[in-house]
Amino acid sequence: MVAVSTGLRERKKADTRAALAAAVLRLAVEKGFEHVTVEEVAAAADVSYRTFFNHFASKEEALLQPEGPDRPRLGDRLAETDPGLPLLDALRAAMRADLARIEDDAATWRDRFSVIAATPALLPRLVELGATDERALAEAVAARTGTTAGTDLHPDLVAAVTTAAVRVAFMRWHAGTVPLAELVDEALDAVAAGLPTPPRKKKEQ
Questions:
Q1: What b/e sequence results for 112-138 when a residue is b if at least 16 CB atoms lie within 10 Å of its CB, and e otherwise?
Q2: Helices (DSSP H) in 32-122: which residue ranges?
Q3: pLDDT tens across 174-201, in order?
Q4: Given 3, 63, 87, 204, which is the most exposed site by the fewest CB atoms within 10 A?
């Protein structure tokens, strides 16, 4: 009975958090993120103002971290992969489920990227979150390779390059129609190949 009650409580919390994150995004698309208030978000999700802060520290967090600040990061996913996999294969495996989940909810994620792109004030927080995730990834790479993040070049470089490759893939995905996982694979393949210079395109006559 205790386990069932705990499970129901956690699902209810997750549902409320998702409703709040969805309300923030919907209102931001409608009127611009800077014009959205926490009071409006709470009302749109049919919860109290206080309940909002039980789930998110701010409207910025609700937009940028819709699953909450304790969401699993790529570094966490990497730590769970088969230790016998080569590092690049392990990174791909670690990303697979999250990329599929984003692709399945593509319209929501594209709206989120559009709001972020239209709101320069979000950039410092976005950079901060990215740096935190990158450090966590470097730590996971270090644990996997027997190196030391922050001291050895390898884990920090792998984390930085992987983060950049994924970011570029996301930007192309947001503006196009190619599946996200395919773009991430293409970016990682290019990195693994040493970023070879592509053939020069012929100019149209």
A1: beebbeebeebeebeeebeeebbbbbb
A2: 38-44, 49-55, 59-64, 74-79, 87-104, 106-117
A3: 988 899 999 999 999 999 999 989 888 7
A4: 204
Instruction: Tell me the two tokens of residue 23.
Output: 């309300």
Contact indicator for 101, 158 with CB cutoff of 8 Å = no
C-alpha dihedral (182, 184, 189, 195), degrees to nearest 10: 130
Q: What is the CB neighbour count within 10 angstroms for residue 196?
A: 7
Burial class (CB in 10 A: 0-12, 13-18, 19+), 194: exposed
Which residues, in sequence order, are CB contacts of 58 under 8 Å at separation 6+?
Answer: 38
Other CB atoms within 10 A of residue 107 CB: 7
How many angstroms separate the CA atoms of 188 and 175, rounded?
A: 19
Task: Enumerate domains of the chain plus CATH numbers.
Answer: 1-70 (1.10.357.10), 72-196 (1.10.357.10)
Measured distance CA(87)–CA(161) in Å, rounded: 13
Kindly indicate the confidence band of residue 131, based on its pLDDT and cuts at 50, 70 and 90: very high
Spatial contact of 45 and 19, defined as CB atoms under 8 Å apart: yes
> How many alpha carbons fall within 13 Å on the CB side of residue 106?
14
Instruction: Tally the C-alpha atoms within 13 A of residue 31's C-alpha that lie toward its C-beta.
Output: 9
